[in-house]
Design goal:
The chain has twelve helices and 14 strands. The chain is of the alpha/beta class. It has a domain of 72 residues: Alpha-Beta Plaits. The strands form three sheets. The protein has a six-stranded mixed β-sheet with strand order 6-7-8-3-9-10, with helices on both faces. Helix 3 crosses helix 4 and helix 4 crosses helix 5. The longest helix has 18 residues. The chain starts with a strand and ends with a helix.
Length: 337
Amino acid sequence: MNTAIEVEGLVKVYRGGVRAVDGISFSIREREIFGFLGPNGAGKSTTIKCVIGLLRPTSGTIRVLGKDVRRDPGAVKRNIGYAAQETAVDDRLTGWENLYLQGRFYHLSRREIRRRGEEVLKLFGLWERRNDTADTYSGGMLKRLDIACALIHRPRILFLDEPTLGLDVQTRKTIWDYIERLRSEHGMTIFLTTHYMEEADVLSDRVAIIDRGRIVALDRPGALKAGIGGDLITVRFSTGDGLEPLLRSLKALPGVREIREAQDGIHRIVVEKNGDQLIPEIVRLAQDHGIGIHSIRLKRPTLDDVYLHYTGRQIREAEGSREELIRSRVMARRIRR
């Protein structure tokens, strides 16, 4: 399978010395859904903007469909679609007018816009509302229209920057279905940035975890989860003089791969398999060392655990405030009009 995107040694330093992207390299195959997972400020949006040519990298090489983004930006932009975090839809125009405007930007004929516009509006379930102004659309409809506008010129690669940010769970899953259809029915390559663990897990063929401008892990979601162990036991112990000896005893148990202290004094015990059989032994050893157990639970690894494993912390971005900020910006724009 051919390579759609190649990034080598990408660095982006903003004015003031802020190093947003710190020497990352990766490649994306054609027809692949590639997930870029990380919290706000990790470098996801900066990377995607460098790849599509909206930002000039400080250093590094980027090739999209074999074309160097710096040397031939026009050829690259003709073959890609981009939907940013905040929708670029003009809510004074109808859904159809937004699509028409975008099509003319790409020098499509009126006949071609009519044909393709009907296709994408029906794909995203917006055909019946095509003549309504966008200010009457719900948040989920606006996001679907925004993605439809990014598809009017039939790009070979679609870039989606936080495509479900601020949407409710039901609408989020509807967007997921549309993304999967784009790949399965149209053979499209999709570069997806997100901070939602489930979204990356469900949609992505491969996931790159980015933290503070660096890629700390890259593989299939299943392989990433398998790589940190078969089972995870999380335990909150009481503090005491016997805690350190207890941890040494636990590390010596057969099948225990690693013990790491996470946030809030919780210890994560990574085991090869049969974690349920190990729990009684953990309880017994804690009693022997005079250490109480406030809570203990067993679970299979998730991408959240993978992120915690590689970074030492969970994604605890100010998700609510970020989504409220986007909503407030949309409302402010409408008020000004």
